[in-house]
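<context>
A single protein, sequence plus fold
<entry> Chain with its tokenised backbone below
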Amino acid sequence: MSFAGTYELQSQENFVPFMKAIGLPDDIIEMGKDIKSVTQIEQNGNHLIVTVTTGPKVLRNEFNLGEESEIETLTEEKIKTTVNLVDGKLVVQLKAVHSVTEISGDILTNVMTLKDIIYKRVSKRVA
């Protein structure tokens, strides 16, 4: 299954409570809540490069599926973790945050869970 493509954020649920829970400052949350972020995924077999651009902020992670890699989180912390492909979905544990990304047609859905807060992002392929 290929995740490759460029996706623009269409909708998100629980952005503010989730960002507060992971410790982002209020000014950053306020600035980011109305910006349509763009996710670009390059994939060559099990090697992926995921770049998320939200306004001036660019988060880029490069990893091989099933191999431990250093991943930068939303709080700019770098942690060692493994992204796995499970039932066609990208699954990763980022400390206390569990992240699942799946693709269905032109829709990319990312769900991040921290305790009882579920943050859902839905993006549509634009290229």
